[in-house]
């Protein structure tokens, strides 16, 4: 009960301070809308927000799925071949030093304003956490377990399936949660640069009209989508790793 009450009380206090700061004139209303104005914008524009959110969620889901698939393939190859690991490890790391906002205009220039550049950008942003977490997980397997399986004539595939995959599962889901949030943010950033629908497109339009209450409403929707994806991943982890809740207890 305390774990729920304390965060809710903290959130309520922040909202009260926010509301009071604007109502009493400490912060001009044209710079910062009140929470009540943001809620009103959510209520008035919920159909439009739902339409744009569906587009962003579709882009994020497709990009995340492809990013996870690509990350898994690369991680398996890096674990299997030491030379490939030495060759790709610095490249994978360097790829994350380039800001996403710097890549997005190039992708739009090369691939146009359709769905493809948005998907590619999401793949780029979600690929790294999956690859790194899986490679680290594969290498964390107990060597004694591998040696034992080899004495029992286990094949390389059986060692991978029954030893390395379980060892990497926890780290994989941790990386997947990070990638899920990156997917939503990556989709919004890509939509800033062009498109017909999506939360990023909607945010750009309301920003140009100085409707800051609607901008805050979009931010809330983006945060909500990220939280929903993370919760779904938690549920998936419980299904795939039923022993984890018992371990935590």
Automatic annotation (TrEMBL):
Family: Belongs to the binding-protein-dependent transport system permease family.
Entry-linked InterPro entries: MetI-like (IPR000515), MetI-like_sf (IPR035906)
Major location category of this protein: membrane
Protein species of origin: Slackia heliotrinireducens (strain ATCC 29202 / DSM 20476 / NCTC 11029 / RHS 1)
Transmembrane segments: 57-78, 182-203, 215-233
Protein origin, superkingdom: Bacteria
PANTHER family recorded: ABC TRANSPORTER PERMEASE PROTEIN HI_0355-RELATED (PTHR30151:SF20), ALKANE SULFONATE ABC TRANSPORTER-RELATED, MEMBRANE SUBUNIT (PTHR30151)
Membrane topology: Multi-pass membrane protein
Subcellular location(s) of the protein: Cell membrane
Domain ABC transmembrane type-1: 53-233
Entry protein name: ABC-type nitrate/sulfonate/bicarbonate transport system, permease component
Record GO biological process: transmembrane transport
Any single Gene Ontology cellular-component annotation: plasma membrane
Keywords of the record: Cell membrane, Membrane, Transmembrane, Transmembrane helix, Transport
